[in-house]
Specification:
Layout lengths: L7 H7 L4 E5 L2 E2 L7 E2 L1 E6 L2 E7 L7 E2 L4 E4 L1 E6 L18 H13 L2 H4 L1 H14 L2 E8 L3 H4 L7 E8 L4 H16 L6 E5 L7 H14 L3 E5 L3 H9 L3 H8 L13 H8 L5 E5 L5 H9 L4 E5 L1 H7 L6 H6 L3 E4 L12 H10 L5 H8 L1 H6 L17 E5 L7 H6 L4 E7 L2 E5 L2
Helix pairs in contact: 6-7, 10-11, 14-15
The chain binds zinc ion.
Zinc ion (ZN) binds next to loops.
Length: 421
């Protein structure tokens, strides 16, 4: 159905008013079961009631659509959004140590050098994919590059790295300046990875996160080369770091994946990105800290770069929340979390219902926004995704993920930030 025709034209018009009731074929509140013939009542951009059958007052009937909480992408690097196709790791050495030089080269290309423009492109693409909240890793000064309105909400994790003492001190100075410019509800800290952050910097970053009550995000156990560097100070990563003159003398102390889990969980929330090569100790620590720790998997990036995915079933079985992210356009073909989820479902790793939980409730939790996003509950901002399935099956969760299902509208506080043409 074209969006210039009712009911979608009505949606755009009605959202300008203070009160709005939306009815869909199925509402998926992610709080209780799907509601066939469900509706949502909004007042001044907030959800005030969720129900089914006959709603009160004037209604915008969205026809054969699925209405769900806005999707949350808990891990992205928007600054790479100008990269048209994923970068293939350089051979040799391949893998992550071969991908990093490729992305460093791409950063110098015209589509990437204007970071603010790339971020705007990525925000538009995200809204068109039904995303209303992004866990963003920022290497640039975050305050100057991110629009605040008309785009998905952001949790901006300021990325920090440093193997040498001097680089670590510079990173801390830059972090403090950056955090002072961001509201705490939108800020976070990202110690980059075990192979790029010395132990003393890690400890200081987590002191800051704990003191300011900020969530953290860490790339963890992404490659075998990471383990090799930590255990032997050698391997492909060491060669890469030497070639970049980034490996200092004397050698820095690095933390194991298990120690990273314990340290990062001093923050109120810790998202561990990838976690493809968890050893037994790191897994056990994640389980112990599951009231603070989440794992974020980015399946298509993991398949491209390391060829290995986190042990999703075992993590879920241990009660650890697992969320689905896209990573950036340097390693993912698009910024659609639904496409990442379909990858997992197609391989039989999770059910469609589990996948939807990972795209909404668990993803909101991973970025420390579980009180405002991830479920349709009265009192929360009306951040919504409206989908049009081509055909309707018995399982609305599967319909959400079907390749032919289109995003027709994405709403933030009841206002469209994307309307399909
Ligand atoms: Zn990443």
């Amino acid at each position: 159905m074209p969006l210039s025709e009712p009911p979608f034209a009505g949606l755009a018009a009605a959202s300008k008013g203070a009160t709005l009731t939306l009815r869909a074929r199925t509402v998926l509140p992610m709080q209780g079961p799907p509601l066939d013939g469900g509706w949502l009542r909004l007042v001044r951009g907030r959800i005030v009631a969720v129900g089914r059958r006959e709603p009160p007052g004037r209604v915008v009937d969205l026809g054969d659509t699925l209405l769900l909480p806005g999707l949350v992408n808990p891990h992205c690097h928007l600054e790479f959004s100008g990269i048209p196709t994923p970068l293939v790791p350089q051979q040799p050495p391949g893998g992550l140590a071969g991908w990093i030089p490729a992305v460093m080269g791409a950063r110098q290309q015209p589509g990437c050098s204007d970071v603010a423009a790339a971020i705007r492109v990525g925000l538009r693409e995200s809204a068109a994919a039904g995303v209303t909240l992004i866990g963003e890793i920022a290497t640039a000064d975050p305050s100057c590059s991110y629009p605040q309105q008309g785009v998905p909400r952001l949790r901006v994790y300021r990325e920090c790295l440093g193997l040498s003492d001097a680089r670590a001190r510079g990173s801390l100075t830059s972090l403090r300046r950056g955090l002072d410019r961001l509201p705490s509800r939108a800020a976070g800290i990202s110690p980059h990875a075990p192979y790029s952050v010395r132990a003393s910097l890690a400890a200081e970053l987590l002191r800051i996160a704990a003191r300011r009550r900020l969530p953290v995000a860490v790339h963890l156990a992404e490659s075998r080369e990471e383990q090799e560097l930590i255990q032997t100070q050698g391997g492909a990563f060491r060669q890469l770091l030497d070639s970049l003159a980034a490996w200092p003398s004397p050698a820095p102390r690095l933390l194991t994946a298990a120690d990273w889990v314990s340290l990062a969980c001093r923050a109120p929330r810790a998202a561990f990105i990838h976690a493809s090569f968890l050893d037994h100790t790191a897994f056990a620590r994640l389980a112990r800290h599951r009231n603070r720790a989440a794992v974020v998997v980015c399946p298509r990036t993991a398949a491209l770069i390391s060829g290995s995915l986190a042990p999703v079933r075992q993590l879920l079985g241990a009660g650890i929340r697992v969320a689905i992210g896209t990573d950036g356009r340097g390693s993912a073909p698009d910024l659609s979390p639904r496409h990442e989820a379909a990858w997992l479902v197609d391989r039989g790793l999770v059910s469609p219902a589990e996948a939807l939980m990972m795209l909404t409730t668990s993803a909101a939790w991973a970025v420390g926004c579980e009180h405002a996003a991830g479920r349709l509950i009265p009192g929360r901002p009306a951040d919504l995704t409206i989908l049009a399935p081509e055909s309707v099956s018995a399982d609305p969760h599967a319909d959400v993920l079907a390749p032919s299902t289109r995003v027709v509208a994405t709403l933030r506080s009841g206002k469209p930030i994307f309307l399909s043409a």
